[in-house]
Structure formats: structure tokens, C-alpha cells
Design brief:
The protein folds into 2 domains: about 60 residues, no CATH class; about 325 residues, Aminoglycoside 3'-phosphotransferase, Chain: A, domain 2 (Alpha-Beta Complex), CATH 3.90.1200. Helix content is about 45%, strand content about 15%. It contains 15 helices and 9 strands. The strands form 3 sheets. It has a 5-stranded antiparallel sheet, with helices on both faces. Strands 6-9 form a two-stranded antiparallel ribbon. Strand 7 and strand 8 form a beta hairpin. The chain is globular and about 75 Å long. Pfam families: EcKL. InterPro entries: CHK_kinase-like, EcKL, Kinase-like_dom_sf.
Length: about 400
């Protein structure tokens, strides 16, 4: 792990004093360690900082401990350009420091709600970084991405996503300009060329991999080769903002690693809080829904419970909009289904770009800086995963039958 000289007790003391509004805080020691495993966070380096400090209370020095999450922008590889040109940290800092607290405040008088970790501190100049609360202190944890989310976890996630979307509508009703700045997301014509190349490269890499899958019709490989040159462009079309749509603020990167679950005493998931808001996007809720369906449920849930999840999402969305007295009218369920059909290509994007990262075996997973070679080619072991092959040999013919692989 790279040593960050600026991340020291003096700096953390300054941050805590400002956050707690308490100048008596004296940090005695910090311990910095990786906050995630390799391959769990791709567009930033996550650090967990354990802090020992003293605080004055009633003329006594009281010893306390806490833990912070520090997210540092990558430097020295292709991700640096991607983060800077794509304004990914600008987006996440804006979300955590301003938009998400305002969305949570729409529930005042209805109940308290947590949508994201508490924002603590940020810097948008080099070294670009963001500090937030450590949700592990509240007992939240990430589910097993390799197994995929079972139905219980999916229901908790999808209901909370609906609350997230409804809260953004309530905010926009009060302030019509509140969500305008979140225009990009993963696929957008203004995103940097490095991101376009990466996404197109995923379709190309999958095309090469399916040669080794004789169970697939050879014409699918031929279609993937043609698709790779326009893959990102079609993704941008599928997520294009349309003023007349029913629009929400999408999380934008809604996959299993970006949601942390709270469990009851029976170890059943009862709530979820979301993290990683670098790709948040104002647009159709189909963006988050298709991304989630393409990346996060177990295959059993994908096959048997998609309609149930969609109906649970819709029930939670309309109920929360009613609770928050939104002036925006909710769409009919048939309109929601129509939006999913219209934008269905975005699930192809999620399945080609994100799902290989989800299902890669732990012992061979790589960081994004290792996946993309200097010549622009991909070396992603996720495409060789047995689980990924099992999923994709089922869904690729489905995508083909829907015309989604046609150029």
C-alpha cells in the first residue's frame, strides 16, 4: 500500500475537530489499512483509518476511538485521467455533502432515514480525497458478490432503491434545479475517451471469450465483434435523458458491492445503505433497475423472481412518494415496464462490463489498473469465470432473441 504522508495524526485531528466542532480533540495515533480487497473498488483506493484520540469532558480527558473511511483518487495510471476527465469525485462529493442529506431531509416529519454514509471532509485538489463515516461501526456489511444476492437481500435492496428514487423526486419537487448537474452516469457522450475505450473493450473481450463456449450459436460471437465498435454509443442511447420521461436521481452504479446491509438478530437483512456515488445520473429509473438486474441477483433470482422484484420496487416507490406528498405523479406500472423495454440495452452493458468484475474468482481478481494494459487491451480474468460462463450462455441467447446484439 502506498504511504500517504499527508494522511497523518495531525491531519485527522484537524478533520475531527472541524467535524465534531470540538477543539479539545487530540489525536494520539492512527492506523491506516486497506478498506477493501483488491478488485472490490475500481475507481478509488479505499482506506480504513482507525483513530485513537482524547476529548475533554467536564475537565477530564476521555479516551475514545473511531474509524473513518478515506477514499483517495488514483494516480499514475489510466484511472487518473478517467477520474479527472469524468469529474467522478466532483460528482460523489456533491452527492454526499449536499444532495443526499437534502434527500434524507425530505423525510422529516415522516421518519428518519439513512441513504448513504455521513460525509465528513473532502478535497478536490490533488491529492483528491473524500472522508466519510465507516458503516462497519454501525454493523453494516457487504453481501457475498460471488454468490449473488438471494431473494431476501434483493427485496431489501430494491425497496430501498425505490425510497432513494422517491426521495430524489421529493427534493426536485421543492427545488427543480437540484438534480440537473447529475447528467453523465456511466454512458454519456461527454465522458472521456478512456471510459469509452474500456466499455467497448469489454464487448470485444467477451467476443473473443465466447469462441471457447461451443454451447453458444457461432452467430452470437459474430454479432459481438460487430457490436464492440458501437457498444458505448448504444449504451449512451439507452440511458439518454428525456425530459418527458418519469425521471429520478439514479445511484448510477447500483451493484452488490455498492450496498451495505444491516441484519437483525436472526441474521436476516432488514435495511441497506448505499455507497459510491461517482456515476449518479438524473434519468429514467430503468437505469438503476437494469444495472441491478444485470449484475447483482443470484441466477435463481434472475430467472424466477424478476417480476416480483419489479413489483416490490413499484409498490415501495409509489408508497414513499405518497408519504412524502410528491407533486410529481408516479407512472403506472405498465409505463415502468415500457421504460425497461425501451432501455433494455443497458442490461447488456451491465452484463458485459460489470458482471465479469462481480463474478471473477477471488484468487485471480485484479484491480482496474491491471485489467487495462498500456496498449488498451483487456486482461480481465472475470470473462473466464465458470459462474460468468454459466450466466452468459443463458442470457446471451435471450439478448439475441430481443435484438439487443444487432448493430
Amino acid at each position: 500500500m502506498e504511504i500517504l504522508n499527508w494522511l497523518n495524526p495531525t491531519f485527522i485531528q484537524k478533520v475531527l475537530r472541524k467535524t465534531e466542532q470540538d477543539d479539545s480533540i487530540e489525536v494520539s495515533d492512527i492506523n491506516v489499512k486497506p478498506g477493501t480487497s483488491k478488485g472490490d473498488n475500481y475507481l478509488g483506493d479505499l482506506l480504513r483509518v482507525n483513530v485513537d484520540f482524547l476529548r475533554s469532558k467536564k475537565h477530564e480527558k476521555i479516551a475514545e476511538t473511531t474509524s473513518l473511511i478515506v477514499k483517495v483518487a488514483p494516480r499514475g495510471d489510466f484511472r487518473e485521467d478517467l477520474v479527472r476527465s469524468g469529474k467522478l469525485y466532483d460528482t460523489e462529493i456533491s452527492m454526499l455533502s449536499n444532495t443526499l442529506p437534502r434527500m434524507e431531509n425530505t423525510h422529516v416529519g415522516v421518519g428518519t432515514i439513512s441513504l448513504a454514509p455521513r460525509y465528513i471532509y473532502s478535497q478536490i485538489e490533488v491529492p483528491i480525497h473524500l472522508i466519510m463515516e465507516d458503516l462497519k461501526l454501525k454493523g453494516l456489511r457487504i453481501a457475498d458478490r460471488h454468490a449473488g444476492l438471494d431473494l431476501e437481500h434483493c427485496l431489501v435492496a430494491i425497496r430501498k432503491l425505490a425510497v432513494f428514487h422517491a426521495s430524489s423526486i421529493a427534493l426536485r419537487d421543492k427545488d427543480p434545479q437540484a438534480l440537473i448537474r447529475y447528467e453523465r452516469g456511466l454512458c454519456h457522450e461527454s465522458q472521456p475517451a478512456s471510459l469509452v475505450a474500456f466499455v467497448n473493450g469489454c464487448a470485444e473481450a467477451l467476443g473473443k471469450q465466447v469462441v471457447k463456449w461451443p454451447e453458444l450459436n457461432p452467430r452470437i460471437r459474430e454479432k459481438l465483434v460487430k457490436l464492440s465498435s458501437v457498444f458505448y454509443e448504444k449504451g449512451s442511447e439507452s440511458t439518454r435523458f428525456e425530459q418527458d420521461d418519469f425521471n429520478v436521481l439514479n445511484h448510477g452504479d447500483f451493484w452488490v458491492n455498492n450496498m451495505m446491509f444491516r441484519y437483525d438478530e436472526r441474521k436476516k437483512p432488514v435495511d441497506a445503505i448505499f455507497v459510491d456515488f461517482q456515476l449518479s445520473k438524473h434519468g429514467s429509473p430503468a437505469i438503476d433497475l437494469l444495472y441491478f438486474f444485470g449484475t447483482s441477483p443470484s441466477d435463481d433470482v434472475r430467472i424466477h423472481h424478476r417480476d416480483l422484484l419489479l413489483r416490490e420496487y413499484y409498490a415501495s416507490l409509489t408508497a414513499t412518494m405518497a408519504d412524502l406528498k410528491c407533486s410529481t405523479e408516479a407512472p403506472g406500472f405498465d409505463k415502468l415496464q415500457e421504460a425497461l423495454r425501451k432501455r433494455a440495452f443497458y442490461e447488456v452493458i451491465a452484463s458485459f462490463v460489470i458482471l465479469p468484475l462481480v463474478l471473477v474468482e477471488v484468487e485471480v481478481q485484479k484491480g482496474l489498473d491491471e485489467i487495462i494494459k498500456p496498449d488498451g487491451t483487456h486482461e480481465n480474468p472475470g470473462f473466464e469465470s465458470k459462474i460468468y460462463r454459466k450466466v452468459m450462455t443463458r442470457v446471451l441467447p435471450l439478448f439475441d432473441s430481443m435484438g439487443l446484439l444487432d448493430v
